[in-house]
Amino acid sequence: HRNAHVAVIGAGAFGGWTALNLLRSGVQVTLLDAWGPGHSRSSSGGEQRGFKIADDASGPEHDPSTTERTVTAAGISAATNYIGYRFPGLRGAPLIESRVCQYTNTPDGDFIVDKHPEADNTWLLGGGSGHGFKHGPALGEMVAAQVLGQIPVEETFSLARFMR
């Protein structure tokens, strides 16, 4: 067994739901890398499924465990029309699949990197707005320095900004 004096919770779109349920049940969490070294987000673990396009428009708030996650006909039409406009060589190409990608966002679009307001040894890292993966190394360095007391909490990423 290993004991930790500090916990950093950065669980993505299911973060709040996951953290709450784990906290209630007292479960110890271990992070496993699904694909191992050498794969990036763009490779999806070595799978090749075609050209990807995404509409980065915000949607309504929802519960990730109960929300219907299907792409609307209007969404598919908008995406295929844009592909045809932006990439003429792909105009009329067959649609292989569509899916809803959910991610966390904050009201101001910036990350949350701060201590939990009720647990001094727990840090929250979230609100990646779909960009958490590419900013992960820098955020990891920043939260590590904050946990070690080397730098203060960045006001830009603090929870206090939402409590004013």
Biggest sheet record: 3 strands, mixed
The total beta strand count reads 3
- Average pLDDT works out at 76
Instruction: Indicate the percent of residues in helices.
Output: 25-40%
Rounded to an integer in angstroms, the radius of gyration calculated over CA atoms is 19 Å
The number of helical elements comes to 3
Low-confidence stretches: 30-43
Instruction: Summarize the helix and strand pattern as letters.
Output: EHHEEH
Q: What topology, given as strand order, has the largest sheet?
A: 1-3-2
Relative strand content: 5-15%
Determine the structural class based on helices, strands and strand pairing.
Answer: alpha+beta
Shape: elongated
Distance between the termini: 41 Å
